[in-house]
Amino acid sequence: MAVCICVGRGGVCNAGGLPVTKNNPKPAKMAEDTRTLLRTGGSICMVGLLCAVLILTSFGGMSIHGPVTNLGWLALIVFIMCMPFGLMLLALGVAKWIRGIKHPDEMN
């Protein structure tokens, strides 16, 4: 192992481009479909949460019978549709991500 001390930078650097450690593993790359699942699931969940916040703050709030305004009812419908589907996509993306970390050689 070859290491040189760089005077001007104040740190340890490689000597001649040699690796500092003997085993230099490559960082695990996430598959493109896994990234797409996580991004899509996260954005759908964010839209659902935004609708829930808008119901409570801007669209008249909630009464015992549901939202007060028509926009509140529309936002409630979007919230009810977005949350299960977005969470399902997020769960699938996280499962694929964990599998890719544990078995990097099986990823295409």
Largest sheet report: 2 strands, antiparallel
Number of helices: 2
Q: Alpha-carbon distance between the termini?
A: 34 Å
Gyration radius from CA atoms, angstroms: 24 Å
The arrangement of helices and strands along the chain is EEHEEH
Task: Describe the overall structure.
This protein has 108 residues and is mostly helical. Helices cover 55% and strands 11% of the residues. It has two helices and four strands, in the order ββαββα. The strands form two sheets. It has a two-stranded antiparallel ribbon. β1 and β2 form a beta hairpin. α1 runs antiparallel to α2. The longest helix has 33 residues. The chain is elongated, with a radius of gyration of 24 Å. The two termini are 34 Å apart.
Quick overview:
By secondary structure, the protein is mainly alpha-helical.
SSE topology:
Blueprint: E1 3-6, E2 11-14, H1 32-57, E3 62-63, E4 66-67, H2 70-102
Antiparallel strand pairs: 1-2, 3-4
Helix pairs in contact: 1-2
Attribute tags:
mainly alpha, 11% strand, two-stranded antiparallel ribbon, 108 residues
